[in-house]
Write a structure and sequence with these properties.
Elements: H1 14-74
């Protein structure tokens, strides 16, 4: 007697569908959060560049005023 395997068609049950939907939604949330974090990092880099530019500008003004005072005293 030969053994015959009965093959059943795969079916989608409600819990499995809910789990798959939840995984897709979670993946979308993670991708969205990563995109937001990337944008925030870019914004922070731009703010940091502007801050350093301001610091260098203020330092330059202070140094130039000090140099001008020294030049006026020397005359």
């Amino acid at each position: 007697m030969s053994e015959r395997r009965i093959e059943f068609e795969p079916f989608a049950c409600a819990p499995a569908l809910k789990l798959e939907a939840h995984e897709r939604v979670s993946l979308l949330h993670v991708e969205t959060l990563n995109a937001r974090l990337d944008r925030l990092e870019q914004l922070l880099e731009r703010v940091e560049r502007r801050l350093w530019l301001a610091v260098y500008g203020v330092t330059g003004v202070i140094l130039s005023e000090g140099f001008l005072k020294l030049m006026s005293i020397a005359n």
